[in-house]
Amino acid sequence: MSIQVLPDALVARIAAGEVVERPSSAVKELVENAIDAGATEIRVECAEGGRRLLRITDNGQGIRADEVALAFTHHATSKLQQIEDLSNIHTLGFRGEALASIASVSQVSCVTRHKDEQSGTLLRIDNAKIVSEERIGRPPGTTMTIEHLFARVPARLKFLKSNQTERGHIDGIVTRYAMAYPHIRFILSHDGKLTFQSNGNGLLRDVLVEIYGVNAAAQMVPIVESGASRVGGQSISPLSTPHSPQVSGFAALPLFDHSNRTKITLFVNGRPVQDTKLAYAVIQAYHTLLMVGRFPVAVVMLQVPPEDVDVNVHPAKAEVRFRDADSAFSAVQRAVRRTLLDNMPVPEAPSVLKGVGSGRWGVGSESATDSPRVEADLGSIISPQPIAPETPQPALVGSEIWNRVGIAKQGEFETRQSQAPNYQLPITHYAPQLPALRILGQLALTYIIAEGPEGLYLIDQHAAHERVLFEKLLAERELGAVSSQALLDPAPMDIPADSAYLLEEQLPMLQDLGFEVDHFGGNTFLVRAVPALMQQDDIVAGRADAGVRAKATA
C-alpha cells in the first residue's frame, strides 16, 4: 500500500478521538469555553447519559457573527496569538481543537450573540459539514446543542459505558468546575430532572454542601498555609512570596474518609488535574491520622505563576508539569497537615478507655476471683467475670455466643455510644468454625474476652453484631420473607450529587431487603421503614451514604 495524505474528514475524526473520548469530554470542553467567556451562569442539560443530547448554555460574552463558523475550524482560537503565549496561559482552553472535534462526530447547533451586537447567530453543523447559518434574536451568551454523539463513529460508540456510568462522568466534570469556580452558578439536569445546582455566591463551602451534603461538609475545614494566619477570612503567610505556590481549599477531618483516593480533588490555577504526586502529598499530610486502607477527602487549590507550570502535556489537559514539582508537593503537604493539626481536638485522658463497641457486657454482682494485681491494673478496663472451678459454666459455641453478645434488646448489653470512629481492621485470617468458648469479660467496651482451647480470644462485638444482622437479613431474603418495621420519624439522608442517582436506581432492591426509601427531592432521601430485625440505633444515615459512595467508585 502506497503512502498517501489522509482526507480531511478522516483526519478530523482521528483528532476528535484525542479530545472527545466520551460525552463528559464534550461537556468539559464546552464548560471551559463558557468559563473563559466570563459566564456567571452555566446550565448543562443531558439526555441518555449524553448520547442523545448535550446542551450547554451560558451568559458569557458570546461569539461575534463573523467568527461563528471560524470557531469550528481546526486550530482556530482567540486565546493564543504567538508561540510565547504557551508559557503564559491564563485560560482553560487555548488549542482551538474542541469545537471542531465535537462537530466532526456529532450534530451541533450553535446559538450565540456577542454582547456588543444586536442580534445573534444560529449555526447548524452535521458531522463537520455546515448545514445552515442564519441571524436570530437571543440574549448575549451561547447555547451549544450536541445531538447523536458518535452516531457515525460506531467503533467509538460501542466503547461507551451505560447511561448511568456516562452520567456519573458528566456529574464529576460539572461538580469539579463548580468547586473551582464557586462564583459561577452551575445547573445540571439529566433527562429533564434537576440533579445539581450551585448558587454562585462565591463560597466554596456552600458548593461542598451541595456536593457532599450538610453533614459531610461540616467535617471539612478550610486549608490554611503552613505558618499562615487568618486575617479577614484570608490566609496570610509571612513566609510566602508572589512566586511561591499558594494553597487553599478544604480538607476533611479524619472522621470523614473514603475507601479510595477518588475524593482527593486537585486544581492547579483553576484547572482540575490528575496528579499522582500531589495526591500523594495530600495522603502524606494525613499520615498517622487515618486507618490503613482509608483515604482522605479534600479539595485542594494550588495557585502557581503560569510560567511555572506546563498545561500542554496531555490531550485532555488533565495533567500538568511543574517547573519545581518538589516545591508544589511540599506546599500542599505542609498546608494540609497544618490545617489538620490546628483543627484536631485535643483528647482528654479518660478514666475508662473508650472504644467503638456497641455495648458493654453485663457483669454480675459476685466478687471476682482474679488476683489483686490484675484487678488494680485492669479494673477500669476489663469487667471481670467470676470463674468458679467447682461450678463450671457450660461452654458456648457458634450462635449461642452471638445470641448473648449481639442482640441488645435481650438486655445482655447496656448500649453506650462511643465518640470514636467506627474503624474495622482488615481480616487477615478466616476460621471455619469457632471452638468451644467461655466468656470472661469485656475489654475497653469493645471486645468480648473469651477463653478457648488454644488460648485467649478477642471478639469485636460491634462487627459480630453487624454480621449477625447481615446473615439474618440474607436468610430472610432467600426465603422471601423479609419483614419491615416503619420508623416513627423517617430518617433523612443527604447523598453526594454524583451518587444520588445510584441510590435511586437501587430503591427496588432495597425494598426487597425490607427498606422503604423515598426520594425527598434533590439529593435527599427519607428512610421510612427498615428490616424488623434492625433496631432504631442501627439506622445511621452515614452508613447508607458510605455504601452509595462505595458503589459509585466500584
What are its keywords?
globular; 4 domains; alpha+beta; Heat Shock Protein 90; 26 strands; 5-stranded mixed β-sheet; 8-stranded mixed β-sheet; Ribosomal Protein S5, domain 2; 554 residues; 16 helices; disordered C terminus
Give a written overview of the molecule.
- The chain has 554 residues and is α+β, with helices and mostly antiparallel strands.
- The protein has four domains: 1-202, Histidine kinase-like ATPase, C-terminal domain (Heat Shock Protein 90); 219-346, Ribosomal Protein S5, domain 2; 372-465, no CATH class; 482-552, 2-Layer Sandwich (Ribosomal Protein S8, Chain: A, domain 1).
- It contains 16 helices and 26 strands.
- The strands form seven sheets. The chain has an eight-stranded mixed β-sheet with strand order 5-4-3-6-2-1-7-8, with helices on one face. Strands 9-12-17-14-15 form a five-stranded mixed β-sheet.
- The radius of gyration is 29 Å and the shape is globular.
- The two termini are 45 Å apart.
- The model is unreliable at 226-239, 351-421 and 540-554 (pLDDT under 50).
Quick synopsis:
The chain has 554 residues and is an alpha+beta fold. The protein is globular and about 85 Å long.
List the helices and strands and how they pair.
Elements: H1 8-19, H2 23-36, E1 41-47, E2 53-58, H3 68-71, H4 98-103, E3 107-113, E4 120-126, E5 129-136, E6 141-147, H5 154-157, H6 163-180, E7 185-190, E8 193-197, H7 204-212, H8 214-218, E9 220-222, E10 229-231, E11 234-236, E12 246-252, E13 257-258, E14 264-268, E15 271-273, H9 276-285, E16 295-296, E17 298-303, E18 309-310, E19 321-322, H10 325-343, H11 372-378, E20 382-384, H12 399-405, E21 438-443, E22 447-452, E23 455-460, H13 461-479, E24 484-494, H14 500-505, H15 507-512, E25 516-521, E26 524-531, H16 541-552
Parallel strand pairs: 1-7, 14-17
Antiparallel strand pairs: 1-2, 2-6, 3-4, 3-6, 4-5, 7-8, 9-12, 10-11, 12-17, 13-16, 14-15, 18-19, 20-21, 21-22, 22-23, 24-26, 25-26
Helix pairs in contact: 2-6, 6-7, 9-10
